[in-house]
Amino acid sequence: MTPTTDAVTGPGRTERxxxxxxxxxxxxxxSEPVLVDVRPAGEVLPGMTPRTILTSGAPLDWASYEGGQRxxxxxAVLFEGLAATPEEADARLAxxxxxxxxxxDHGAVGSVSGVCSxxxxxxxxxxxxxxxxxxxxxxxxxxxxxxxxxxxxxxxxKQMAYVRDVIAPTLAEAVRSVGGIPLQPIIRRAxxxxxxxxxxxxxxxxxxxxxxxxxxxxxxxxxDDRRALDLSVFLTESEYFFLHLSMAAGxxxxxxxxxIAGSSVVTAMTVSGKEFALxxxxxxxxxxxxPLPPITSLPIKLFDGFTPDDLxxxxxxxxxxxxxxxxxxxxxxAMPMQDYSAxxxxxxxxxxxxxxxxxxxxxxxxxxxxxxxxxxxxxxxxRLVADTGIPPVIHMGASHRDGGHxxxxxxxxxxxxxxxxLDALDTLDTGPxxxxxxxxxxxxxxxxx
Length: 449
Description:
Elements: H1 13-30, E1 33-40, H2 41-44, E2 52-55, H3 67-79, H4 86-95, E3 99-102, E4 108-109, E5 121-127, E6 132-137, H5 154-177, E7 181-182, H6 184-191, H7 202-218, H8 225-237, H9 241-256, E8 266-271, E9 275-280, E10 288-291, E11 300-302, E12 311-312, H10 320-323, H11 345-356, E13 359-368, E14 374-380, H12 382-388, E15 394-400, E16 405-411, H13 416-428
Parallel strand pairs: 2-3, 4-6
Antiparallel strand pairs: 1-5, 1-7, 5-6, 8-9, 9-10, 11-16, 12-15, 13-14, 15-16
């Protein structure tokens, strides 16, 4: 979107940027996400067509997609019945007859490969404070092999059809029967129970399941016992179910903070199989990209039986959770993750302390018990990232080079695109520069109180 707020004339660049950043952060922390429906992507995503496949990352030409992300895109084409074989799907994608486009450009975010097609069900989350809406395709369930993690076979596509035809309609009826389910109270409670709402969602998913069971009772005239049981079992087994809700909530909040002229607040971070990319509020829809670091250089804990040689990047936009103060920002709230992801309790606390140095606020609702209920670091400022050399720490799942979920760890994005985005922001801001910038390193406190 085009920046629309404060003009570039006024009392000076620094003061304008401070005001712009304050407004961006205000919108993020004011967000009130509510799950209001579950609908086919083709019915609710702006600009979605029957021959559009969405995926994670900034836009790439079809030839640039590879590995599990490419496999997942082809799998979505087959799932939609747009081709009979992978070869036919490949040819139609190469010709442009079927288009591959970024999730972010259609009001959505996608987990790992991020693949979403017209008939796939998406979670519809309204931000009732800001008037924006975020979407994320529904979680596929417990299986290690999934379209999300770059696997396309008969079992995966059968599970996708089950989610589309049985689970999603049942969930939609339950949600609509109670007028929507507020997500912020669930996120707040889950942080107090050991979740970070990115790599760990066990508590949030269980709280959500309890809320849905209440809703199923309210919808008992619409939902038969068999479907109600199917949904209940699905939610019990799907420990990551709530991740897709926190992602949709993050998209709604971050979009509300987008398009504020002069703001250096990060509103999107995304990974494809090839590169990392980000957006700033003040530069609108423009992407700033950089090649990915070697995946073996990242701290990752693998499931038994796998080695670093098995790893590969496959994309991902669950990074949106970090932009609203969750995920890597909330590491100190998620001590149980030490048994699942790379790191130690001491390291997780230190990680959150570092994140206060590159953010502009502490979330007034999302709080960390171990830090005496200090608010999570919220509002990543690209200026602070560039000046301190501290990248946002992103919690991530680990993907097998041939597809599948094989572990979890930390992703440290390259610093170059943060500086490139700042340079572009400064070019847009043609107003007079003024005196020392309060964001400069010598004036930056260790923590933002």
